[in-house]
Amino acid sequence: MTAIPHSDVLIVGAGISGISSAFHLQKYAPKASFEILERRDSIGGTWNLFKYPGIRSDSDMYTLGFSFRPWRDAKAIADAPSIMGYLQDAVEDGALDDKIHFQKKVVEAKWSTPDSKWFVTIEDGATGETETRTCKFLHSCAGYYNYDKGYQPDFPGAESFKGPIVHPQFWPEDMDYSGKKVVVIGSGATAVTLVPAMADTAEHVTMLQRSPTYIVARPSEDAFANFMRKILPAGLAYGATRWKNVLLGRYFFWLCRTRPEFVKKRLLDMLPELLPEGYDIEKHLTPRYNPWDQRVCLAPDGDFFTAICNGKADIATDHIEEIQENGIKLKSGEFLEADIIVSATGLDLNFLGNIEVSVDNEAIEPANLLNYKGMMYSGIPNLLVSFGYTNASWTLRCDLTSKYLCRLYNYMERKNLARVMPTPDMSQVEYEPLLDFSSGYVVRKSAELPKQGSIKPWVMYQNYIADIFLTRFSALQDGALKFTK
To answer: Which Gene Ontology molecular-function terms are recorded (predicted)?
Structure first.
C-alpha cells in the first residue's frame, strides 16, 4: 500500500500570501517540511487571474511588497506585470519552484484528532483525478473571494444587449474596445482603474454608479523612496519607506475615524483643480459615507480625472431602469449608448477558497466561527489563514501571519505538542461582524462569514502596529489557545 505523502505544513495558494509563508518557513522554521498547492498553472493569485486593462495595485509597493524583499522599481503604484515579475523573482531567489505544485485544487480538508493531522483531498486540474496528502498544519493562502465567479447582479433586459457584457474577473483576451462606446458599471477600485485605461483607445467611457466613491489623486512614484535609494543601501531605503508609508497610512485612517468631517472636506477640496470648471462634484464625487467606511480609491497621477478633463470619460450617477439592445436606460430617463458594458460590480467573498472543512467528521459552518488574532478560527485545530487588511496593504498582515505560523510550529515541536486550537470563553465574548466595512461585497456576505469578538484576542484590529505586538511578542499560552500533546 502506497504511503500518503505528508508535510509539516501544506500551503494552499501560490499568490503573495503563499510565497510569504514559504519564505518565512524556510528562514524561521527550517526543520519544517512544506509544499505549496496551487489550483492554477501559475503563481501570482490575483495578479495572474485578473487581465483587465490597466490592472495595478492601489496600495504602494513598499507595503504591498514583502518585508524580506525590497521593491526596487521607481513606480510605487505598480501594474500587474511588474508585480508578477517581482513575485517570480522572489520564487526563483528562494528556490521555491520545486515546492509549488500547479493545477492542484484543494477540495476538502478533514482534521483527525486521533491522528493529529489533516487529511487533504486534492483534485488534479489536468487529469481530474484526486489524491490525498496529510499535514500537521494547514495554511490557507487562497484569498477571500471566489475564483470561479464574480458578483454579477441580474440587470433587467441584459439578454437583449447586442454587445458583450464583461465582468473584469473574466476579461476576454481578444476584447477589442478601440473606437467603442463603453459603460463601466460600478465605482470601486476596479472601475476607477478601468475607466482611464480604456479611455486611451475607446471612443468614450462612462462610469455608471449608484453612489459616489472617494477618489484621491496621488503620484505614481514615491519621491522619498527614490531619494532614499540614492543615499542608502536597498534594504535600508526600503525599510525606511515602508515604515514611512505604514505610519502615514495609520495616521490617515485614525483621522478618518476621529475627524471624518475634516478629512471629507480636505478630500473634496482637492477635486475642483483636477476637474473641468463647473463639474458637479456634489452629485458625482461626494459619497454619502465617511472616508474609510469603504476603501478610498486611488488615481495614480490623477489619471481618472485627466480622462474626464480631456472628454474621453465621464460619470453618470443614477440607477439602471433596463439594459436595451444598444445601451442602458436610466431611471432618470437618460440613455447611455454602449457597444460594450463592463460589470465592475465586485467580488463574491467566500471562506477558505470554498474548501469543505470538517473536524472529526463534523462539518464546519463558517458563520459560527470566531476569529482569533486575525489568523485562526475557534474550534478548528492547526489551521492558519492569511487574510490582509481592509485599510492597508494585504502583505503587511500576511507577513505577520507567516511569521506567527513559524513561531507556533517551533514552539509545538519543542514542547512535543500535536494540536493547537483557539477556544473562546463564550460567557465573556460577544459576536460582532468580521469586518467593520460597508462595501457591498462585504455586506452581501457578512452573515455567511466568521465573526470577530468583542475582546482580544478575538478582535480584528486592522492595525499593523498593534498586530506586531499581538503576534510577535504576546505569549502563545494566553488562555485562548488550547494545546494538546
So the answer is: flavin adenine dinucleotide binding; N,N-dimethylaniline monooxygenase activity; NADP binding
Q: How confident is the model at residue 440 (pLDDT cuts 50, 70, 90)?
A: confident
Indicate the pTM of the whole model.
0.95
Name the amino acid, one letter, at 115. D
Question: Hey, what's the cell of 116?
Answer: 493529529
pLDDT at 262: 97
Tell me: do 475 and 370 sit in the same domain.
Answer: yes
Q: Are residues 119 and 210 both part of a single domain?
A: no
pLDDT at 13 over 70: yes
Same domain for 166 and 312? yes
Q: What is the mean pLDDT of residues 212-239?
A: 96
DSSP state of 157: T
C-alpha–C-alpha distance, residues 98 and 84, integer Å: 18
User: Residue 436 belongs to what H/E stretch?
Assistant: none
Query: Hey, what's the cell of 404?
Result: 506567527
What is the Cα 196 distance to its own chain's centre? 22
Mean pLDDT of 211-238: 96
Residue 237 class from Cβ within 10 Å (0-12 exposed, 13-18 middle, 19+ buried)? buried
193 and 253 belong to one structural domain: yes
Q: What is the CA radius of gyration of the chain?
A: 23
Asked if residue 184 and residue 139 are part of one domain, the reply reads no
Give the domain range for residue 61: 6-148+348-484
SS3 335: strand
Angle (CA) 374 434 218, round 5°: 80
Q: Sheet containing 327-330: which strands, arranged edge to edge?
A: 320-324, 327-330, 335-337
**Cα angle 461-262-393, degrees, rounded to a multiple of 5:** 35
DSSP characters for 438-468?
A: --HHHHTTGGGS-EEESSTTS-----HHHHH
Share of the chain above pLDDT 90, in %: 89
User: Averaged over 314-336, what is the pLDDT?
Assistant: 97
* pLDDT band for position 390 (cuts 50, 70, 90): confident
Q: Are 400 and 471 in contact (CB under 8 A)?
A: yes
